[in-house]
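Writing this down once: the sequence line spells out the residues, with the fold written below as integer tokens. I am pasting one below:
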Amino acid sequence: MIPQQYREMLSHKSVIRQISEYGAARAAEVGAENVFDYSLGNPSVPAPAAFTAEMQRLLAEAEPVALHGYSPSLGIPAVREAVAESLARRFGLPYEARHIFMTSGAAGAIAHALRAVCEPGDEVVTFAPCFPEYGPYVAGAGLRLRYAASRADLQPDLESLAALLGPKTAAVLINTPNNPTGAVYSAGSLAGLAEVLRAESARRGRPIYLISDEPYREIDFTGTAPYVASFYKDTLTCYSFSKSLSLPGERIGYLAVRPGCEGEEVLADICGQISRGTGHNCPPSIIQLAVAKVLERTADLTVYRTNMGLMYAELTALGFDCQKPGGTFYIFPRALEPDAVAFCERAKRYDLLLVPSDSFGCKGYFRMALCTDTDKVRRSLPALRALAESYR
């Protein structure tokens, strides 16, 4: 018999994916150039030429059986070493290969992190608005997700967090730069968060782990985005190369255990055992080897800053209430009516595809994913003006 929980999930499909599918169907009707699809956060710039060149070199020169064979369960040792060296050099923490577990993107890293530091029945706290898939990730690990509030400036509300920390809280899951808001958590916010967690961990005599989801780390318009693990020792960093290198289809990332973390000597090895029970085992060898050669490069991410500037200027000129993003390729304005779902349905009349904030755990806002051609952003502005005018 098909488990009921999966039948129920069929009625709660990803709203983002559904809107994207609608956009594809609509584009077939009226032409893709006439549909302004801001639904899916799919990078719109090519991977660096150096990544492509390394893939070509590996295919031409590497021994095929080894190149396409299984990697060790924790990842290729030379790749883990390269990741650790890069993190140590960039962020001043003494990472070693033993702290690194290679994963299928940040999603795979989060799935392993949750199981590595939580027992079924434990609670995980995150800040709303948040990435919708945190719900399935947490539930799939047999855990309960609780939502703390964000402040009006989209920084974490630490009083709300403190009120939710209880005997079952095993981890706090954060995302900065943030999807869906584009907010970059400040050093002050992270220091305050670390203080709250240290105090509660000391009171309980065991750590509350901080799981930091960082796929947008390199899309930082401020130039000063703090490295989360620098603030709190019991941190597991979950990273993906999907956005920095424009490789979402390659599904490659890592989990990094902060040096000094409680259980640092076993956590990466534990992730290798978790992979046996989750069906995840060994990201593609060739992709591991290729990214190891371009760890500190990025795709040309400047288009996201350009698009953000254009859209932020237009939204504010039209009277939208909107915080200026500090990073990512998202912007998160308040809708022009309390019902964000109704607002986004109205936007479809103008072939503007927007995602209502209900999907992200709050009411009254919408998300735009600005990973598209700048020309298309400019061409969408008349549609946005017409939508705004329809409310006057």
Summary: The CA atoms of residues 329 and 370 lie 5 Å apart. The mean pLDDT is 94. The chain has two domains: 4-47+299-389, 63-291. Residues 4-47+299-389 form a domain with the Aspartate Aminotransferase, domain 1 fold (CATH 3.90.1150.10).
